[in-house]
Amino acid sequence: MRKEEAKIKSKAVFVLVAFLLSVFSVAAVAGQAVPPQPVLHLGAIVVGLEAGVAAQAAPLPPPVPIPGAVEHAVNGNYTKLQISPKHEYFQIKPGDEEEFTVKVKNKEEETVSASPRIEIPPYGEYFLEENWITVEPDSAEVKADEEKEFTVKVKIPEDAEIGHYSAQVLFSNDTIPTPYPAPFPMYVNAFKFSMEVWTPPKILIQPQYIHDRIEAGQSHEYKIQLENKGDNAIAINPEIDGGRLHCIGPDCPSEIPADWISIKAPSKVGALSKETVKVTVNVPADAKGMYDGSINLNIDDPSIERWNQEVRMHIKVWKKPTTPYREDFTVKQGEKIRVEIIARQHAYDRYGGAEEREEPSFDVALTTREGGKLKPEPSKTVKKGEVSLGMEYLPPWETSSEGMYHVMRTEYSETYEITNATGGVWTLDILPKNAESFEYTIEIGE
User: Fold this and answer.
1) Quick one: DSSP state of residue 354?
2) pLDDT for the residue 444
3) Residue of 217, 205, 219, 204 whose CA lies nearest to 354
4) Where is the domain boundary, 276, 299, 318?
5) Which of 36, 74, 238, 367 could form a disulfide with 373 if both were Cys (CB 3.0 to 4.6 A apart)?
6) Which backbone phi and psi does 41 adopt, to 5 degrees?
7) Closest by Cα among 265, 300, 433 to 359
């Protein structure tokens, strides 16, 4: 009996929840906001649930609809104007202006009076001033199925702050109704635009990303080149910018500890000149893994946004192995053994000051269970390279240089061969030198 009662209760609650979700979902899709809904007598529904349990199959009383509520939600009780375009985004410099043509078409069966007005949203990075915007004509009578054009002009004053702004031009006061208090009205017939007020940056930064690997217990120095193309000196104050990691989990890099990094930099970059910021990373002997961080250059240039003043760093810390990697394999009597080992070096940001690496090499040994041990010399050594014709990772001030090649990737391989091998279990030992990683191939037989 209790199980049956629980089933009826669960079913009734499920129907109620499904009804509520469907009402709010339809409203959200139709109007992008929830219109007023019929009042649901939850107390009556609860009583109905109890009654249903007692009677085993007593139907729930239907909710009493509010006259016109569904029609209002579906059809919308507002003036139907077709605005084209509805949205615009653009970049503009202080002192410049931008102009748009907005078409307003009357989809009603009677004439509509359109008197555009400016609305500044009560949110955003910066607040646009109404006197920056003009709309012509300031009013118009739009007949049924007629289309009128309005010209929207945006003029930015010379002293406007660099940043992002937004506004909307309203062609009617109609708003989307909501069943709850809204922080600001959602207008139906509006042309919305957002803009970025910007100026070209006066300082060029190279590089803005340092990617390198450092052996535990070692240190590397990186150079960040700054070029001031302006007519006045610009102050800088580089510092370590921590606490900006956005990755959480066992596979994510750790934050570079502040005490690993030291910075040497001038206090300013002179007009039409270059300066160098030196960043040294000292890795302790007990460190290992991947680390992320950034250097905030704190450039006193409002044309450079906060994010673009950072030099991001990704450091791989590794330890030199002292014991070899080991792999066992089985060979038949008289078969041939061929071992190929490959290591690759990728071009990290060489203009960030990463040092040239020594070429990878390997100590290789092949032994048998019977105690035989061979330390063969490689029968073949191959070096392969991938070279860009100076099109990647170049500082802005070197783009006109001639004959610049950039090594993107280098591959080193060594091949070891043994003919007429003794049958049984063999062991391959590989001790890498100056290699971040390696791969191997063991071929047995012809």
Assistant:
1) P
2) 95
3) 219
4) 318
5) 367
6) -85, 85
7) 433
Query: How confident is the model over 371-383, as a mean pLDDT?
Result: 89
E strands present in 177-324: 190-197, 203-206, 209-215, 219-228, 234-235, 239-240, 254-255, 261-264, 268-269, 273-282, 289-296, 310-318
At 234 the pLDDT is 96
Residue 300 scores a pLDDT above 50: yes
Q: d(Cα 299, Cα 297) in Å, to the nearest integer?
A: 6
Tokens 């810390």 label which residue? 317
R_g of the chain, CA atoms, integer Å:
36
154-173: pLDDT as tens digits: 999 999 998 899 999 999 99
Is the pLDDT at 15 greater than 50, yes or no?
no
Q: At 11, is the secondary structure helix, strand, or coil?
A: helix
Q: Cβ atoms within 10 A of the Cβ of 172, count?
A: 21
CATH number at residue 357: 2.60.120
Distances in whole angstroms, Cα of residue 78 to Cα of each of 118, 177, 211, 263, 284: 19, 10, 57, 62, 68
Query: Domain residues for 439?
Result: 325-444
Tell me how far apart the alpha carbons of residues 417 and 425 are, in angstroms, rounded to a whole number: 16
Half-sphere CA count of 256, side-chain side, radius 13 A = 28
Phi/psi for 312 (5° steps) reads -80, 145
Q: Give exposure, 120-154, as e/b (b: 16+ Cβ within 10 Å).
A: beeeeeeebeeebbebeeeebebeeeeebebebeb
Report residue 387's pLDDT band, with 50, 70 and 90 as the boundaries. confident
Tracing tokens 């609860």 back to the chain, one arrives at: 46
Domain count, the chain: 4
| Residue 68 sits in the same domain as residue 108 | no
Rounded Cα distance between 302 and 163, Å, is 9
The strand pairing partners of 394, in sequence order, are none
134, 173 contact by CB (below 8 A) = no
Residues 304 and 346 grouped into a single domain: no
Q: Is the pLDDT of residue 440 over 70?
A: yes
- The mean pLDDT of the chain is 80
CA distance 358 to 349: 16
Q: Of 288, 318, 348, which residue sits at a domain end?
A: 318
Tell which residue, 403, 357, 393, 408, has the closest CA to residue 209: 393
Q: What percentage of the chain's residues is helix, strand, coil (to nearest 5)?
A: 15, 40, 45
